[in-house]
Design a protein that fits this description.
By secondary structure, this protein is mostly helical. It starts with a helix and ends in a 5-residue tail after the last helix. 50% of the residues are buried.
């Protein structure tokens, strides 16, 4: 077998192996998001490898192939038709707008890179790790910026999963309002499921979360049209995989047969994304991530606290949040 082909196979086998382990871990507990496990394992293994040359080509190929493929297929998971009442839809949009703005403002105040701040903001207000993976290539984020963002929002989300049921008991928050809290402020669907299912309101919380997920398509298109300008480049550029992502989302929402297929292919998409994110982790210098310090995590936490504060204001000034 040709040496070049062997090097590609060796490099590709690493992220596939890591993705398999991460996916198996995620099946044990909803809080163990496979994308986060994949990035962590990738970073650890990547920093243990001394001779990178034999596997470098395959790792880079995995990023080039599986990131666009995963982004394209993820369009099938966006549901444009949520059953959320219009008044709650406005509340969600207002809340995440404040959430988004606070994180971007804090990132400037604490001198975090624009890409890192933007990825933390997008991951926090939309759909967690998936949003970060989708948007990282759109804004040409460095691998370190992607991993820092993933780790930060995951820690914040897991904190919410632990404390939300406790807070609900302390303050006797009505279940309808608690569902709104979980769906509007937790970062990832797995985290929403874990926190909301503890009190039997996952269905209601998911309606709120799906509205946030549906915002990924217009945000991805907006960023793809503007990030060149943000990076002080003259021309506009729309990556082809953003166009296929939006096209897939439209097709799966207007064709009934495809819409029913979206649930069946979700595990496959997660696995594809896990391979892509594992390849990113394998390319990351752990020292560069550590050098960034706690500032990204602080930003993610403060933005989350701001979102909870907005929820509290909505709850007390508008009355019970119900369906």
């Amino acid at each position: 077998m040709n040496d070049t082909i062997k090097s590609y196979i060796k490099g590709l086998s690493l992220p596939v192996f890591i993705a398999t382990i991460a996916y198996l871990f995620s099946s044990f507990h909803p809080a163990l998001d496979s994308l986060v496990v994949a990035i962590l394992l990738g970073i650890i293994l990547g920093n243990l490898i001394r001779e990178r040359e034999p596997v470098e080509k395959g790792i880079k190929l995995a990023s080039r192939v599986f990131i666009p493929l995963g982004i394209t297929l993820y369009g099938s998971q966006l549901n444009f038709y949520t059953l959320l009442p219009y008044y709650n839809s406005f509340r969600v949009i207002f809340l995440i707008a404040i959430y988004f703005t606070v994180i971007l403002w804090l990132s400037r105040r604490l001198s975090i890179s624009k890409n890192t701040g933007l990825l933390i903001a997008c991951g926090s207000v939309i759909c967690g790790a998936s949003a970060i993976v989708v948007l990282s290539p759109v804004i040409a984020a460095r691998k370190e910026e992607t991993s820092i963002s993933l780790i930060s929002i995951t820690i914040v989300g897991l904190t919410g999963v632990i404390f939300y049921p406790v807070i609900q008991g302390w303050f006797s928050i009505p279940l309808e309002a608690y569902a709104f809290l979980c769906g509007s402020t937790l970062q990832q669907i797995g985290q929403v499921k874990l926190a909301a299912s503890a009190l039997g309101v996952f269905k209601e919380a998911l309606q709120v979360k799906l509205l946030r997920v549906a915002m990924l398509a217009p945000l991805a298109l907006t960023l793809s049209l503007t990030y060149k300008k943000v990076r002080k480049e003259k021309s506009y550029y729309t990556p082809w995989f953003i166009l296929t992502f939006i096209l897939t989302a439209i097709l799966f929402n207007i064709i009934p047969d495809l819409n029913t297929l979206s649930v069946k292919i979700e595990p496959f998409i997660t696995f594809i994304f896990s391979i892509a994110i594992a390849s990113i982790g394998l390319s990351i210098d752990l020292e560069a991530v550590i050098e960034e310090g706690p500032r990204p995590l602080i930003i993610a936490f403060l933005g989350w606290i701001a979102a909870i504060s907005v929820f509290t204001a909505i709850y007390f000034f508008t009355g019970n949040i119900g369906w």
